[in-house]
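User: Let's play a game. I give you a shape written as tokens, and you guess the letters that built it. Ready? Here's round one.
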């Protein structure tokens, strides 16, 4: 998946997740719950669950191999469900305690956005801890999620809360005349904002990434979120290059050492190349370098040149 498609689908699927949340509460007994605190907590939990499901799935497709995707998505959903329920409870409690000041609802949705942003990085942190790896990239991913989710939740929450207050003449508002439309539209905008900003933050704030220029699924891009990224034909490889007989099951590794990414050949018969030259040992990578493995070509990119 390319980064452009990742951002697009994060926004689109975020909107659909919010619409499904509205449909569930609209056509079930949730809308008849008398206690607003309970109702808000349930709606927030549903939205968090569905947003974490779609954003986590897209993140897994972008950054994980197949054997890890289900675990990654499960952790995202669990964190999204529990965290969003708590965030919605806190936001609604503050709203009621303040005498119905709408800003606290906005804050509640911002916290929900933060939870969703954090959820996509929890798996990376757990993996780094269990493997004894450096946590720099995993922590960076969570920070990016907090930034994107928080901003998206705040902006979307602002629209969601105040959209229904649009005056339509006299003392009538959009919420008074079209309550279902106002709620559905506000929630969809909220979901789209959270999804869009999380996707944008992950892409715009990334540090290093690889693009497949030639080979299996050319055009796909992957953020380097691990200190040791494997390249090969095996299902367990982080960058899978299937269908290329010139690529070994475990062909090469991209390793972060200090502040520099290094390319390491794993004793492959055909060798590994950088800009057309076969490497004899660990070789520093610079932004724009072309990595050759078999008949496949990968372009390495990073935000700033490391020294």
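Assistant: Ready! My guess for every position:
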């Amino acid at each position: 998946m390319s980064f452009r498609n990742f951002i697009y689908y994060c926004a689109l699927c975020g909107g659909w997740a919010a619409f499904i949340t509205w449909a569930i509460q609209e056509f079930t007994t949730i809308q008849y719950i008398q206690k607003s605190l309970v109702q808000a907590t349930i709606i927030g939990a549903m939205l968090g669950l569905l947003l974490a499901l779609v954003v986590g799935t897209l993140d897994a497709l972008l950054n994980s191999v197949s054997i890890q995707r289900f675990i990654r998505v499960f952790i995202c959903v669990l964190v999204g469900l529990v965290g969003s329920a708590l965030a919605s409870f806190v936001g609604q409690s503050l709203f009621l305690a303040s005498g119905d000041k709408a800003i606290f609802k906005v804050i509640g949705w911002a916290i929900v956005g933060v939870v969703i942003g954090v959820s996509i990085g929890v798996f990376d942190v757990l993996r780094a801890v269990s493997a004894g790896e450096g946590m720099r990239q995993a922590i960076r991913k969570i920070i990016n999620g907090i930034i994107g989710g928080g901003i998206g939740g705040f902006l979307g929450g602002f629209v969601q809360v105040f959209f229904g207050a649009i005056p339509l003449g006299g003392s009538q508002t959009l919420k008074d005349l079209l309550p279902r439309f106002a709620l559905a539209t506000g929630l969809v905008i909220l979901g789209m904002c959270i999804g869009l900003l999380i996707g944008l933050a992950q892409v715009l704030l990334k540090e290093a990434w690889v693009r497949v220029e030639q080979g299996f699924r050319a055009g796909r891009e992957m953020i380097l979120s691990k200190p040791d990224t494997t390249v090969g034909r095996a299902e367990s490889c982080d960058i899978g290059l299937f269908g290329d007989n010139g690529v070994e099951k475990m062909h090469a590794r991209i390793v972060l050492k200090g502040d520099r990414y290094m390319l390491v050949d794993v004793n492959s018969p055909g060798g590994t190349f950088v800009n057309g030259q076969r490497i004899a040992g660990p070789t520093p990578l610079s932004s724009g370098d072309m990595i050759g493995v078999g008949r496949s070509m990968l372009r390495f990119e990073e935000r700033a040149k490391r020294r």
